[in-house]
Fold this protein.
Amino acid sequence: MAGMIGALGGALAGGVAAVRGARVGAETMAAAALQQIQDQAVTEHQQWLRGQRQQAYSALIAEVQAVRRVTQSLATALYVEHRREPQLEAVQASIRQLCDAGIAVALLGPEHVIEMQRNVTDSVLRVEQTLLQSFSSPPTDRGSIDVSLTEYELAAEDFVNAARMALGSTAQ
């Protein structure tokens, strides 16, 4: 009888150990599965954010190019063709669209890209101010417009480089 009690005790101890081992194994598997789910969520969020940034940066770059075209057209009309028709409204509308596109960049970041976006916005507003002064009497000389446009071009180039860095692209 003592042997049977010993065997029963051994079986019970073995059963408890097996249950405990199964529980530890299940907890380990559950923790690993949870970590995998969390890692996947982080990866998906990073991919989503990169896509959103790429769209916002591309929209701002398109507006930078649009402002470039309309300001060059206005400068040519003023200083080459000596025309003073109201093309300024087209420039102002394009500048407003650029500023609107900058809002998405400011929301999505990162900070170094936001700083470059602000520089673009500030410089384009200086271009607008210089152009407004060119319609005053006496008009602003072409040199002032060229300086503000050069500052704008440099700010735009800095933005493009910052956007490339943020997106992990080094293509030039």
In short: The longest helix spans residues 2-79. DSSP finds four helices and no strands in the chain.
